[in-house]
# Entry
Amino acid sequence: MAAFRKWRLERGAGEPMSEGFNNYIAGEWVPARNGKTFANINPANTDEVVGLFQASGPEDVEAASDAAAKAQPAWAAVPAPRRGEYLFKAAEILEGRLAKLGEEMTREEGKTLSEAKGEVKRAINIFRYFGGEGARSFSYQIPSERENVFCYTVRKPLGVVGLVTPWNFPSAIPAWKMAPALVTGNAVVIKPASLAPLSAYRLVEALHEAGIPAGVLNYVTGSGGAAGNALAENRHVRALSFTGSCEVGKRLHEKLGGRRIRLQLEMGGKNPTVVLRDADLDYAADILVNGAFFSTGQKCTASSRAIIEKAIAEPLIEKLLAKTKKLKIGNGLEAGVDMGPAVDAAQLETDLKYIEIGKQEGARLLCGGKRLGGGAYDKGYFIEPTIFAGVTSEMRIAQEEIFGPVLAVMAANDFEDAMLVANSVKFGLSASIVSKDLTRVHQFIYWIPCRA
Ligand code: NAP
# Structure
């Protein structure tokens, strides 16, 4: 805490002093062995430290995975429905704290309060869903070819599971990795994102209060390069589930492929929303605004490419601009705010860099494009929601994930052309279509991209 106090004094910050948060290893809340910490800063008000977290090193990850390896066999022997009960109990504890946890998430990640509360509720639902899986983990009986031979499958845990999570869904993603791993009898070590570790801490805290046995769940904060990498390389880890950028995911794939452990990678996207000529234009504009700008465009599933049939491009863009200009940008804790800040200075810089690239590539800037300044904006990483038109597939703003509130509008001659444009990226994550033509909608869903 001394480092935290010094940091606070140096900054002269005026917001309420907050507490330090420890790692959770073998059922105990413990500091990093190197004594180092890092600050979790509010991106809407950089004077505010949301909390001080442990800057753990490989030795803390080692202690956490040792604890997990030790606890896992006894946990695997607990009947699955009973393992599910810990999740049900934790869900109840979290539900009682929903308002507080939503507010904390807004302060650490920047998303609006309603989005944050919705996400906490989603994490609670995930705990409940997987709690139920304890009683539904069915196996198969397979008809045998031979007499007196009985064929069936049995579900067995893998052992120690490592989880590495991003900052943009700091509660839901840890929940949807932790809950299935735990209910199926694995022990877990989680390393949350350094930009938003508090939301995952609250999930771990609830499971601790629900009485989960010591060592079954472990939480270690610290940088990806030190703690994340140590977890990926740890000898006890039999499966690693990662959500984050393509760059880091690719590196983990290369590193872990040779070890033949289970590896789950959820990575980036450059998602299209196709709008066909028969669409309700008001509805389409709402969908585009929501998909591109809510959560400040910081969703792997955000739609960053609007692919619009030329016949309706002009009136739809008009509606899109009108709705975008009405968005209120600000601190997500304030009522009426539609879009919060970028999560940190680096993400803001990336957004602005891509806006410059878009201009240089010859795309037409229709609105936004600038960092917001003046008054409370000066304390946060606020940026205008930005729309480019005249974007073509070879442009970088049509190809690379920006992860910010930047929408590229692209024209298509017809449905087939729209599908070609939609598929002209290396990513394949999510996609949407706005149309009243059910045949087209089904063609969109079952489309098989042809590569020349
Ligand atoms: P990131 O930089 O790749 O970080 C993700 C996690 O990996 C963080 O916990 C990070 O730790 C850790 N990490 C970084 N370097 C590492 C290394 N060398 N070894 C092991 N772990 C390492 O991604 P992000 O910026 O947090 O998240 C944004 C990205 O996530 C976007 O690309 C987005 O599309 C993607 N995403 C995908 C999904 C999906 O379901 N497909 C969902 C949400 C987000 P630090 O935080 O300490 O750096």
User: Anything to note?
Assistant: The chain has a mean pLDDT of 95. Residues 164-169, 191, 193-195, 223-225, 228-229, 232, 243-245, 248, 251, 266-269, 300, 401, 403, 429 surround NAP (CB under 6 Å). The radius of gyration is 24 Å.
